[in-house]
Amino acid sequence: VKVRNVILHSGDILISRGGAPTSALIARGNDYPGNFSHIALVYVDPASKEAKIVESHIEVGVVVSTGEQYLSDKKLRVMILRPRADLPQIQKDPMLPHWAAEYAYKRATEGHVPYDFPMDYKDHSKLFCSEVASEAYERYGVNLWAGISHISSPGLRKWLAAFGVRHFETQEPSDLEYDPQLSVVAEWRDPTTLKKDRFDNAVTEVMLEGAEKGDEIGYSWYLLPVARIVKAYSMLLNQFAKAGPIPEGMSATTALRTQDYMEKHKALEERLTVKAEQYSKTHGYEPPYWELVKLAREAKKEK
To answer: Which of 9, 46, 83, 236 is most buried, taking the most CB atoms under 10 A from its CB?
Structure first.
């Protein structure tokens, strides 16, 4: 099926970079920092010939959307990956990608699947975004993520633990780009969003340097009672299959820490933007990435 001039096949994997500060943290928070933060799986309905996108969101768990709905959600870039046709499993059954996608689609539409905050890729009772694709293909003999992602940095592990992560050997979205079992089919991107990507990366890199030096992600204690009330309200909505202000599976304290992280990231990026504009006026060109990181370090000292 064609979506924005690209032919999508059932079983294709969409690997994308979101525009939120937490998306940058997911992409860069790795022993080998990457550029992507989210995974989704394409299912093409044989009857309607429509593309359905199966993905897991922090806010609501596993959901199904149309191609246009998927692309309308803020993304800085999207790459399309496809299992290689010469894989033994696919040579044996060329329909394997479709069967995997169909399984994921049916599981998503036949019952609620919560988001997996601990990021345990071996337990599929809950699914984070990477697991949507890996579990589906695993059932048909294709084990994606030829190299499991490792998060070794003590400061980063401490921060991620504060957000609810418990497994630091897992399937990070950015690492799937390098899986030799997959081929790159196409990519949607534009210069404006790629500039945002670079700024987010630079800010995140400098914040993670701070994590290694003892910087904390915290919250104001006086906000906790209110957050707990909001969480109770969210849990009530969850009982009626509705999403609340605080996602299912996320505690009130984690929600406050997430808000604190996003506010710190936004403030630093605003100061970096001013410095980058000054750099461009002085030098006559946009600062390259390594200069952006230097400018972000300077901006952080000025807080």
So the answer is: 83
